[in-house]
Every structure is written in structure tokens, then in C-alpha cells.
Design goal:
- The protein has about 600 residues and is α+β, with helices and mostly antiparallel strands.
- Among the domains are: about 110 residues, no CATH class; about 80 residues, no CATH class; about 150 residues, Ribonuclease H-like superfamily/Ribonuclease H (Nucleotidyltransferase, domain 5, 2-Layer Sandwich), CATH 3.30.420.10.
- The protein is built from 24 helices and 18 strands.
- The radius of gyration is 33 Å and the shape is globular.
- It starts with a strand and ends with a helix.
- The N terminus is likely disordered.
Length: about 600
């Protein structure tokens, strides 16, 4: 006996009967004898291999219904038989169970119950379903702007669930793509027009000259790209061999083993020997002794997580978890490199095409301009004229009315009405903005008995310099102490955030503060700390935060906007913008921010 889609009381009842010896386990295989699978209306499936077991099963299901009041609907239930079961045995078992429907002909959760024979024929329902949906849309006489929205939001989503379960045959995918292409280019379902641009090129991203339709073949391959998207994350390093395992993340070739620098080396050397146990970071001296400089830089880009075992993470999502969207992006990128490498060549019209989608006009005009640049209209080449018109807006000569109306050259009668509508929309938007300014966020104090340490930073990507600051205030808004610190050689924004936050946490714990609220622009770090299982890519950062915060009995982490963190932000900006690189810790607040802190306190 076996169960699928289990977890409810029906399964529990049958399982209990099995344990008590009321029902005997089935032999392996369902093809011979009286083997059968009972599929219940709620999706549960139970396999039996004898008439006696069928009788027992009928009694159990009847008893379950009487005991719980949840009677089985036999009219909606079905039995799936093995292909060797005779018609006589089928009829006898159906009479015993009281279930006369046979399986494999209906769907469950939108998928066929059984995949026997040709998968192309089994999945033909996807083609029929998509075609029926498109036939309905043809009747609406939509512009291509409307068609774009429907194809992206609805038609492309129809096969998503089947593709998440298994890989569709290429024939099915080609049929679906062909139907969507026909809908895009044709105005009637029974009329065939020329497809001026191939569908696979229309599925390219807008920055590469396409429209951004979903590439079903790439999406179908998304779940098969684990090997290319996985990254080996070093924990304590005990399970990773330095010279034999692929653990170095190379941006050119992906995961690989480290390059050998010296003539002699220990072939059994483990990565754990390269970690400084005191600092929980890489031992740079040890790295420089045995690795080439390029590998030293790659390895030291991410620190080990000594409290965990070595493990895999997904490198195409910031949180380290694989998602269908990120896998689809990887599949599409691989497909572009393989099949459409010409779109990456220079010089190219793609930058002009990309600018089209940012023009403040209705979708049908943007699509028309894209068709012109893609040679998708029979009138011929208009590249130079379109480029001139797009640059016209930046020229000093000419009136604003002339500059703004050029996309409407074929719809001139509608131009004035459309721009009038935009002016009304701007007035409404301006009024909403005024209301937002009135309700502008401001610094909010902690509750009585708690302190607040506002933390801020500013990073200069050109000079790799970082300015950090924190300000401690009580529930009345009084600044008790503050600090400023300059950092150098900070190569990334993520590193800047981590350095600033760890410095602030270490400062608070060394000053023996407790019951502290930490507001700042550290959304991802705070989320990773609160839900570490959802952010495996930030395990090292979370572990460093946890070590420092473990010294506090009570604390809170709070993501705030810059308006709620102005005092600390101004102090941090003084390092990068005013070259005030002297670091210090001081009581009270800066004299040049006296008015700011006083006003925030008075507004409480």
C-alpha cells in the first residue's frame, strides 16, 4: 500500500488499519493480478492488490465517514487500474468499492492524472487552453500595447505550473510560442500576417532590442541550472580540500579549485587551516603564502562562517536562495549567449530601442517606434529620422509644444488631449506630494526606559572611503553621546553597511549599554538576522552581529528612512563631503547640529 497527496484523516485511518493488520501491505508493482489505485475526490491515492483488501478498504472508508461526518463522495472518486487487469476483475472491484469512475482521464490541480503514451498529446490541453484564451482576446480588438500586457501577464503564465513540475517537450513550447506570436501580429484569428520580427528576438530584454516577452524555453530550463548557479560557501572549512575541491568563485569560469603557486604543497590540506580562529576570518598571511594574488583576492572577498558546516548557496539572489525568477534570468542569459550573440555586438541600435520605452507617451506609440527601428513595418528604414526626433528634445531651439508632440506624428489629433490629461495628472500628483511632505517622517523616540542608537553611514565608491556615525538618545530626545569614524579601503556598499553596523554594535556593548534600539538603513542585514533561514548568503554577517548582540539582554533592530535618521546621517556625511576624517567619541551632540536635535526633541 502506498499514499500520495497524503496528510489527512483518510490516510490516517488507512494507515492505522495497516498497523493493526486489518489491511495487508501490497506487493511491489501494480501491473498484474488485481492491483489497483484508488484516487479519492480530495486527491488522495491508495493502492491495493486483492479483492479482500478492497472489501476492507470499503469498510474503512465507510467507518471514517460515519465517525467524522466527512463522507466520501464516490461519484467524484475514481479507480486507476493496471493495464493487465481484466474487464471482469475491474467490474468486480468497482462493485466492491462502489466507485465506477476510472482514473487517468481527468485532471488534478490542472495536471493530467497520468502521463501514458505521448507527452505531446497528453499536454495538448495547454495548446487548447491558450488558443481559447487568445480567441477571446481577438474579439476585443486591442492595440498592440494592450496585447503586450495580456501576453506578459496572462498568456505566458498559463504553462508556468506544469513547467514547475516537469520539463515540457520542445514541440509543445514551440506551439505555444507560435500561438502567442500569431496573436501579436494578427488582428483576426483566421487571418495570417507577416511576422516581421522573430518571436525569440521579441523575447529579448528591452535593453537588448526586444520587448521582454517571456522566453518559455528558457523558463522551462530554469530548474535545470543548479550547477551554474550554486556557490560553495565556506563555513568552518573542515569538509573542503584546498587543492582538490572546487570552492573558489571565479567570475570568468565559475567554481574551480585554487591555482597552485608553489612547487611543493600538501595535497590533503583543508580550508580550515587557513582560518584565523581568534578573529573568525581568513588568515591573510597564510593565503598569501600558498595562493597566487588573484586567488587571494577572490577568496578574501567573502569571509568564512566558522559556526557552520560548508554548504551551497545560490549566487544569483541577494539572499542566497534560489527562485524561479533568478533561475529564469540565468537561463535567458545563457540562451542569449548561445543563440543571439549578435545582439551584444557593437555598434548597435539597442540603446536607441531602449530609450523608446522611456518616452512619456501611450504604449501603442512606443511599440510603433520599436517596430520602425526593428524594420517591422513595410515602409522601410527610418533610423536616422527617429534618432533625430529623439535628440530634438535636448536641443535648445524649437518650442516645447513641437518637442513634446513628435511621438504623436501619426496621431496628431490626439496629442493635445493626451498632454492635457497629463497636466491634470501632474496637478493631482503634486497635491499628493504636498500631502506627503506634511506627513513627513521624523525622528521618533524609544519608549521610556530604553535608549536609541541611530546609526548612519555614507560610502564614496570612487575613493572607497566610508564615513560612519552613531548618536545615542533617550526617550526625551536628549543626545547622551555620539561618535564619528572614518574607514578606508571599503570596496563595496555591502561591506560599508556591515562595517558601520558592527562598529556601532561593538561600541554599544563596550560601553555596557542595554535595552537599546538600533535604527538605520540596514534592511537586508536586519531581515537576515530576524529570519536567517531565508538569507543563507548573509550567514557570516548574521553570525558577527549575533556574537556582539549576545552581550545585550534586550535590543531591537529597526529599518528607518533618512528623515528619521538625520542627525547621524549629517555626521557621517561630514567625513566624505567635508573631509572631516578625525574619529572620536564625545558626550552630548555636535554644536553645529544643536538646533536640529533641539527641534526634534521639541516636536515630541
Amino acid at each position: 500500500m502506498f499514499f500520495r497527496q497524503g496528510g489527512n484523516a483518510v490516510d490516517a485511518s488507512v494507515a492505522a488499519a495497516l498497523c493493526l493488520g486489518v489491511v495487508s501491505p501490497a506487493s511491489s508493482g501494480l501491473g498484474g493480478g488485481a492491483s489497483m489505485v484508488v484516487k479519492l475526490a480530495d486527491g488522495d491515492e491508495i493502492a491495493y492488490d486483492s479483492r479482500e483488501v478492497a472489501l476492507r478498504a470499503a469498510e474503512i472508508l465507510s467507518f471514517y465517514g460515519e465517525a467524522t461526518g466527512q463522507c466520501i463522495n464516490y461519484q467524484k472518486s475514481a479507480i486507476t487500474f493496471g493495464h493487465l487487469i481484466s474487464e471482469e476483475v475491474k467490474s468486480e472491484l468497482q462493485n466492491i468499492m462502489g466507485i465506477y469512475n476510472e482514473g487517468e482521464t481527468s485532471k488534478y490541480l490542472g495536471l493530467p492524472e497520468a502521463f501514458s503514451g505521448s507527452k505531446i498529446n497528453t499536454l495538448s490541453y495547454l495548446k487548447d487552453k491558450t488558443q481559447g484564451r487568445l480567441e477571446t482576446w481577438f474579439l476585443r480588438k486591442l492595440s498592440q500595447g494592450g496585447k503586450e500586457i495580456l501576453l506578459k501577464t496572462t498568456a505566458s503564465a498559463l504553462p508556468v505550473f506544469p513547467m514547475s513540475c516537469f520539463r515540457l517537450p520542445k514541440t509543445v513550447i514551440k506551439r505555444l510560442a507560435s500561438m502567442m506570436a500569431n496573436y501579436w501580429w494578427n488582428s483576426h484569428s483566421h487571418m495570417k500576417k507577416i511576422h516581421w520580427v522573430a518571436w525569440d528576438k521579441m523575447c529579448l530584454p528591452k535593453e537588448l532590442g526586444g520587448i521582454g516577452f517571456k522566453d518559455l524555453e528558457s523558463f522551462n530550463q530554469a530548474l535545470e541550472l543548479l550547477q551554474k548557479g550554486l556557490k560553495w560557501q565556506i563555513g568552518n572549512g573542515r569538509n573542503t580540500r584546498v587543492w582538490l575541491d572546487k570552492w573558489v568563485q571565479d567570475p570568468e569560469v565559475g567554481m574551480r579549485a585554487a591555482w597552485i603557486k608553489n612547487i611543493t604543497f600538501d595535497v590533503n590540506l583543508k580550508v580550515s587551516a587557513l582560518i584565523d580562529g581568534a578573529t573568525r576570518r581568513w588568515n591573510l598571511q597564510a593565503l598569501e603564502e600558498i595562493f597566487v594574488p588573484g586567488d587571494v583576492q577572490l577568496i578574501s572577498a567573502s569571509q568564512p562562517i566558522v559556526s557552520r558546516e560548508d554548504s551551497f548557496t545560490w549566487k544569483f539572489n541577494r539572499n542566497g536562495l534560489m527562485s524561479v525568477q533568478s533561475a529564469y534570468g540565468l537561463a535567458r542569459e545563457e540562451r542569449i549567449k548561445e543563440c543571439h550573440n549578435e545582439v551584444l555586438a557593437l555598434p548597435s541600435l539597442n540603446p536607441i530601442k531602449e530609450r523608446i520605452w522611456k518616452i512619456p507617451t501611450v504604449p501603442k506609440i512606443r511599440i510603433f517606434l520599436w517596430k520602425v527601428l526593428s524594420e517591422a513595418i513595410p515602409e522601410g528604414h527610418l533610423f536616422s529620422n527617429i534618432n533625430y526626433l529623439m535628440n530634438l528634445k535636448t536641443q535648445p531651439m524649437g518650442s516645447m509644444e513641437e518637442k513634446r508632440a513628435w511621438p504623436w506624428v501619426l496621431w496628431q489629433n490626439e496629442a493635445d488631449d493626451w498632454f492635457l490629461a497629463q497636466e491634470v495628472g501632474k496637478e493631482v500628483e503634486l497635491e499628493v506630494t504636498r500631502n506627503d511632505v506634511r506627513a513627513k517622517k521624523r525622528w521618533l523616540p524609544p519608549k521610556e526606559g530604553w535608549l536609541m542608537c541611530n546609526v548612519a553611514f555614507e560610502w564614496n565608491k570612487d575613493t572607497h572611503s566610508l564615513g560612519g556615525a552613531w548618536v545615542v538618545r533617550n526617550h526625551r530626545g536628549v543626545a547622551l553621546t555620539h561618535s564619528r569614524r572614518a574607514f578606508s579601503h571599503v570596496v563595496s556598499l555591502a561591506d560599508a553597511r556591515l562595517k558601520t553596523l558592527l562598529w556601532a554594535l561593538e561600541s554599544m556593548t563596550s560601553m555596557r549599554y542595554d535595552r537599546m534600539v538600533f535604527p538605520g538603513d540596514f534592511k537586508e542585514l536586519f531581515l537576515a538576522f530576524q529570519k536567517p533561514h531565508q538569507w543563507p548568503a548573509l550567514r557570516f554577517q548574521v553570525e558577527e552581529m549575533r556574537i556582539l548582540l549576545s552581550r545585550m539582554e534586550e535590543f531591537q533592530l529597526k529599518k528607518v528612512s533618512i528623515e528619521e535618521n538625520r542627525g547621524a546621517s549629517f555626521i557621517a556625511q561630514s567625513i566624505t563631503r567635508q573631509n572631516r576624517s578625525q574619529s572620536y567619541v564625545a558626550n552630548d551632540h555636535l554644536f553645529w547640529l544643536f538646533e536640529l536635535f533641539v527641534n526634534e526633541s521639541r516636536s515630541l
